[in-house]
Amino acid sequence: NAGVMQNPRHLVRRRGQEARLRCSPMKGHSHVYWYRQLPEEGLKFMVYLQKENIIDESGMPKERFSAEFPKEGPSILRIQQVVRGDSAAYFCASSPLVGQTTEKNIQYFGAGTRLSVL
Amino acid sequence: GENVEQHPSTLSVQEGDSAVIKCTYSDSASNYFPWYKQELGKRPQLIIDIRSNVGEKKDQRIAVTLNKTAKHFSLHITETQPEDSAVYFCAASPSGGYQKVTFGTGTKLQVIP
């Protein structure tokens, strides 16, 4: 099992450009979570998705940010018209199907994408 | 929604001493409490967790305690080593169909050789 895969590991964008961050969950996992981590700070929840559904996006900024988890392919976090304040590490985590009694609530993290906005 | 508070924000201990990190939560529906360790520049990794049907769990030098009545839980690291230096996050999660995990703000632990 390759674990949660995120790419790219590092992404540099100029102000106004778009950033697309990808996350492939662990095999068999259908729940994906995105978190943002500013330097020296904690993990801030952004969005929780299941395949083709956004379950909770209460942590997402109202503008410029969007997320999807299509039936096929990785989950995508998209940031349009990036600004310097978007510079952070973005972590994706996945967890197994609801209903599996073992490891039900464990989240496995990817290595993160470090976004730098120039 | 759930609110998790974590203290202290930084902690320095001498190698071999014990370290204790404390967390409180607000939602009585939470019944799963994982702890994650994040080394500098790395991903958070689960180190130990506890469910609400037990009050204490131990794994070698690491132990967690849970007081559901008071809504607080703690991480205890004994015989600390330099490789324990990292940021530690507590978290709380309810059971059921929605598995949002709420994280504490983190504790930066420094073990001084």
Reconstruct the topology from this structure:
The complex is a heterodimer of chains A (118) and B (113).
Chain A: E1 5-7, E2 10-13, E3 19-24, E4 29-37, E5 43-50, E6 53-56, E7 65-68, E8 75-79, E9 88-96, E10 108-109, E11 113-117
Parallel strand pairs in A: 2-11
Antiparallel strand pairs in A: 1-3, 3-8, 4-5, 4-9, 5-6, 7-8, 9-10, 9-11
Chain B: E1 4-7, E2 10-14, E3 19-25, E4 30-38, E5 45-51, E6 56-59, E7 62-67, E8 72-77, E9 86-94, E10 102-103, E11 107-112
Parallel strand pairs in B: 2-11
Antiparallel strand pairs in B: 1-3, 3-8, 4-5, 4-9, 6-7, 7-8, 9-10, 9-11
Total helix count of chain A? Answer: 0
Number of separate helices of chain B: 0
Structural class, from helix and strand content of chain A?
mainly beta
Give the fraction of residues assigned to helices of chain B: under 10%
Identify the overall geometry of chain A.
globular
C-alpha Rg of chain A (nearest Å): 14 Å
Helicity level of chain A, as a percent range? under 10%
Largest sheet of chain A: 7 strands, mixed
The chain-level mean pLDDT of chain B equals 92
Secondary-structure element string of chain A: EEEEEEEEEEE
